[in-house]
Amino acid sequence: MHPELKNSESKEATVSNPPRRQFTRQRRKLTDGERRQYARMSSLHLRKLQQRLPPRARIGLYYDGFGELPTQPILDWCQRVGYFPYLPVVGSLGLDGKGNIDKHLRFVPIYQSKLVNIPTRIHSLGMKQNHHRRLLWAQELDVIICPLVAVDLNGNRMGMGGGFYDTTLGNSYRSGAKKPLKIGWCYDFQVVEQLQRQPWDVPLDGLITPSGIRWF
Fold this sequence. Notes:
alpha/beta, 3-stranded mixed sheet, globular, disordered N terminus
């Protein structure tokens, strides 16, 4: 074996992910004003995402919580340029054949101008959800803005560990489908050099932070 390949494999084998609490604690230290300012800075880069989208695009976003970068500016952008925004619903199809929560997300339309005004219920897993009879599959969206705890320079994403987005996007990713685009939305301190990747992980296509947008 070539020594460079051997060293590369050894380095890859020793990669271990930083603990999630490292990032969640740092997010919680931010003030509400700082979060809004960082979100406003990030929103300035949405126009570059717009260049890759069709008119009247369907955009999946999410309720921010736990100190995450606020997503209200994404909703504002959708309404300003004529895109259709959607929110995820967890376990919308109930239980699977083994009695487990269905991890395939589906998406409901947003009709309000502010996320805080959307009527929600708290899912048994603790996240907010809006319920609506009109549900779309992820493959029907043009973009999904993905929540994350950390992301590396190759687009590998560390989520909260539930596997909902990887399950939802796995089939379309493995089939080579061009949509939905998978875009991360986070603070710059959540970007790390390298994360360990599992076989079931679905990498991002792009990332938006306060400092800019990058494509993978």
